[in-house]
Amino acid sequence: MGSPKHPRPSQMPFAHVPLSRGLPERSTAVAACAGRGEWCSRGEEGFMSCLELGWPGEPLSVPVLAASRARRDTDLHPPRPSVPLSPPSCEPTRSGSWGLYKGRETSASSKESLGAGGVLPPSCLHVIQLPHVGSRGQASLCEMAAGSCLLLLLLPSLVIASHSPPGCKIRITSKGLDLVKQEGLRFVEQELHNITVSDLHGNEGQFHYNISQVKVTDLQLAFSDLNFQPQQHLVFNINNASISLRFRRQLLYWFFYDIGSINASADGVHIYTVLQLAKDKAGRLKISNMTCNASIARMHAGFSGTLRKVYEFLSTFIVTGMRFLLSQQICPSLEHASLVLLNSLLDTVPVRNYVDEHIGIDYSLLRDPSVSTDTLDLDFKGMFFPRVREDQELENHAVEPVIKETERMVYVAFSEYFFDSAMHSYFQAGVLTIELQGEKIPKDLEVLLRATFFGTIFMLSPSVDAPLRLVLQVSAPPRCIIKPSGTSVSVSAFLNISLVPPDRPPVQLSSMAMETKLSAKVFLQGKALRVQLDLRRFRIYSKQSALESLALFSLQAPLKTLLQLSIMPIINERTKKGVQIPLPEGMDFTREVVTNHAGFLTVGADLHFSKGLREVIEKYRPVPTATAAYSSSQPAEPSPDPSSL
């Protein structure tokens, strides 16, 4: 192979990658030297030398990965060199004058760090064996190597980006699961009472029988358990239950024909059910799959009448058939109850819901639920959106809520992103503006404002007696800050003071900037999360000059009073309704406790059922139509009062 066309610089950086000693002379080895064009050759002592073709700092349009020697296209692939895949030390080199990273020269004084730049020792450069091709294939080999390097560099960021932090997180503990088990057990009893068993008929010799109108009269489910099973399952287990039955008999034995009823009991009933939880395409929690196993240990039938002894002797055929039919009907009944009826109950959880006429809330699940042995965690998007731009997305950079408590039945965590998206949506909707004019302005404040701007008003004669107008407009989306000490909201706004002469355009007297910090009290009432705001700090200043800011100092106290007495009641009235927390209908919170953390807050509470599962399911029994399936993904109108649900 000839030497490079450019003369070798005096301080040309290079790196040696050891190869296997037993390789053929014409082997092709491509070193992981990407970025700028390089000439790779094999030395006499079994080393791969990577030398840059261009002078330092000379840009090259296409990266070049040259081989040590040219080979014929028909040559076989040489054996893989014995280079360890995991070198002992792959830390960035901080000593020495030169190093090699991404095919470019870097010095020890470079400010780039590993992952964004830096120096890798030669032992960290892997050698890749590729088939030898002609000059046409060198460009494709370069693209393959460069693409592989780029994928490896972007892989960590792709993994991080795939995990979007939730704005709202709900944790159900084992105590909450115990309450669900009690209500669920009643629901299972109701479903098993409705079991329908097909008629049983047949004959054995001269004995003919027909069993019909099978009904469940009593259930005893004394030993039951509902447990979490990692990673996405709930396990419902019933042991040693008993089921009492009553059915109509028609029996014929030789010339004897008998009609009547039979009381039977199934004992040692065992039902083992596993429910798999997942999110559907709309981001709603669903029971996606169910496995069931049911068995009956023994069954007895009691006969009455003159031929009772004969029937008891021949009842083996009837009892065996009834036990088989009953065990075959338990799992289908529970499967319908889970995949159809319970999923219709989960449909009552708000996913994309309108809060008021301006904004809505997106409670779609970000991922499948995470189940441990003691908890069930649900990560919700928790993002508000303006109704004028429902497809708008606000990127979440807030701290991810972390719930560690397990004392209460349920915990709901809200990050700063949850509240920031609400205020951002109101800002995008253009409703963070309040106008006061005429009688809405307190008289003492009006007198003070006219005295402050007397000179300007006097020059506007004969409009001296024109009414004043105050317009308070938020200039940027407010920001929420949650600390262990409390929750606050920072607001930047403009306050424009104008005269409004009749039949003439308004005359602006002043435009001042205002910065306020509001304290926020977050509390839960029913299933509605509500916020009560109070003014903590207030500052006004002029946007024109510092001298005018001094002149406005006398307005500081009166304007603060105006905010407290006139503006804050209006804001709190708008937030009075609150926003509903994603819980099924018929389930409410009790004994709520709000705890602040760094970047998020948690609401711990216990649960109780205000309505039974059967009552809610009958109210929302699903109707399998295409229209219903479409409307479920659309935002629902705001409810009259979340606390009434």
Automatic annotation (TrEMBL):
Glycoprotein found in the keyword field: yes
Q: What InterPro entries does the record tag this protein with?
A: Bactericidal_perm-incr_a/b_dom (IPR017943), BPI/LBP/Plunc (IPR032942), Lipid-bd_serum_glycop_C (IPR001124), Lipid-bd_serum_glycop_N (IPR017942)
Compositional bias annotation for Pro residues: 79-90
- The lineage's top-level taxon is Eukaryota
Q: Name one GO molecular function term.
A: phosphatidylethanolamine transfer activity
Naming one, the record's GO cellular component terms include: extracellular space
> Where does the protein principally reside?
secreted
Give me the ranges of the annotated region Disordered: 1-20, 73-102
Please list the GO biological process terms of this entry. ceramide transport; high-density lipoprotein particle remodeling
Quick check: keyword Hydrolase in the entry? no
Which residues are in the Lipid-binding serum glycoprotein N-terminal domain? 171-389
Q: Which Gene3D superfamilies match?
A: Bactericidal permeability-increasing protein, domain 1, Bactericidal permeability-increasing protein, domain 2
Lipid-binding serum glycoprotein C-terminal domain location, by residue?
404-605
SUPFAM superfamilies, alphabetized: Bactericidal permeability-increasing protein, BPI (SSF55394)
Q: Where in the cell is it found?
A: Secreted
UniProt keyword annotations, A-Z: Disulfide bond, Glycoprotein, Secreted
* PANTHER family assigned: BACTERICIDAL PERMEABILITY-INCREASING BPI PROTEIN-RELATED, PHOSPHOLIPID TRANSFER PROTEIN
Family that this chain belongs to: Belongs to the BPI/LBP/Plunc superfamily. BPI/LBP family.
Q: What is this protein called?
A: Phospholipid transfer protein
Q: Which organism is it from?
A: Catharus ustulatus
